Amino acid sequence: MDNMFTRFFEDLFARLDGPLHFRLILQPLMAIILATRGGLKDNREGKPPFFWSLFTDPGHRRELLLDAWKSISKVFIIAVLLDVVYQIIVVRWFYPFETVLVAILLALVPYILVRGPVNRIRRDSQNPASPRARN
Rounded to two decimals, what is the model's pTM? Predict the structure, then answer.
């Protein structure tokens, strides 16, 4: 188990240069663009910020997760496929655990971190009289 994590971190830093390294910029950028669209849509529909509502609104959790997956699934799948290609070219082996973790880091994490704040920022900019906007 220790060897697996050591290899993962070594391979993760090796991805920063070499073949297909540009995807480390493009995939999070695409996730951020999709999260921005989702956050603006949430704002138009009057929904609460995404990540926060996953914890505070268990009745709509499934709906929120399905909506997020619908939005980010293509970027996530592309992240998986590109990492498989990278591993075959560079490592000459396939490590599924690494592939899933890299796809999560490149696609899901930026999406989750951006969608809620975009909704909040848009809401506060539309309503300058809100207490949140005055602080």
Answer: 0.78
